[in-house]
Write a structure and sequence with these properties.
Elements (H helix, E strand, L loop, with lengths): L1 E9 L12 E2 L2 E2 L1 E2 L17 E8 L3 H4 L2 H5 L6 E10 L4 E8 L5 E8 L3 E7 L4 E9 L4 E5 L2 E3 L6 H13 L1 E13 L8 E12 L10 E7 H9 L6 H13 L3
Parallel strand pairs: 9-14
Antiparallel strand pairs: 1-5, 2-3, 4-13, 6-7, 7-8, 9-12, 10-11, 10-15, 13-14
Helix pairs in contact: 4-5
Length: about 250
């Protein structure tokens, strides 16, 4: 088992000081008027960096992954793909694949167009949050505003639309927080996260089948509720903790 012996934190205070817009290489944060594509978000994310020094004990060799021991090509190649179901949002495939060891296996794949999640901060350091009933979980969940991408839509355009629809807000400043792969074992959805600031509020524009309550919760309270396990929605947990690091809180 690997043991982390030392963690040395390197803290670039980009944007940590009040009133200072974060930047990298002199570039300011992205405004809503500036085009932003999914391909350039990595260069615009502002995180603390951690230099982690690991020391491996004598038993680490036994825990080394088989692929690293043998330099095996871990790629699985599709031999046959069968569409089982095509719905309004997802498509279910049953694929036959060739494994790295030469054998074959079945992979069930749920294809999804992907989505976005937005952590928005108002002038009082509060986050507009939505509570809605999630049918597949059988319960209501507290979440950041979020939504599904339309076919071929840039995630940034989706984020602007969903923030307006779900909480009635527009933002002057947007910072990308990277993307998440929600459940790679069978689900190909990718979620793009954003931090939005400089908010103006108007009317909501919900879909006909969308019912939710909106409340503004102090950011520090959200962090505590995430760490206490009260908030379990994955995109919300990730966005809150990424924003905490980004803002140096």
């Amino acid at each position: 088992m690997r043991e982390v012996r030392q963690v040395r934190e390197i803290l670039p205070h980009a944007g940590a000081e009040a009133g200072v817009t974060p930047s990298v290489g002199g570039r300011a944060a992205v405004s809503a008027a500036e085009p932003l594509s999914a391909t350039n978000t990595a260069a615009l994310v502002f995180f603390r960096r951690y230099d982690i020094i690991e020391q491996t004990n004598a038993s680490a060799a036994a825990d080394t992954r088989r692929g690293k021991e043998t330099d095996m090509d871990l790629t699985e190649k599709t031999l046959k793909s069968e569409e089982i179901y095509r719905g309004k949002i997802v498509t279910l495939l049953r694929d036959t694949v060739a494994l790295p060891n030469g054998k074959t296996s079945i992979r069930e794949v749920v294809k999804h167009p992907g989505g976005v999640g937005i952590l928005a901060l108002d002038e009082q350091d509060r986050v507009p949050m939505v509570t809605q009933y999630r049918y597949c979980m059988g319960q209501t969940l507290l979440e950041i505003p979020a939504g599904k991408r339309e076919a071929g839509e840039d995630p940034f355009a989706t984020a602007i639309r969903e923030l307006k629809e779900e909480v009635g807000a527009t933002a002057r400043e947007w910072l990308p927080l990277g993307s998440l792969i929600a459940s790679p074992g069978c689900y190909n959805e990718e979620l793009w996260l954003y931090l939005a600031r400089g908010l103006s509020f108007g009317t909501m524009d919900l879909d006909d089948d969308e019912f939710l309550d909106v409340e503004r919760i102090p950011f520090d309270e959200l962090v505590h509720r995430v760490m206490d396990g009260e908030i379990r929605d994955a995109k919300t947990v990730a966005a809150v903790l990424k924003a905490k690091v980004l803002l140096g809180r």
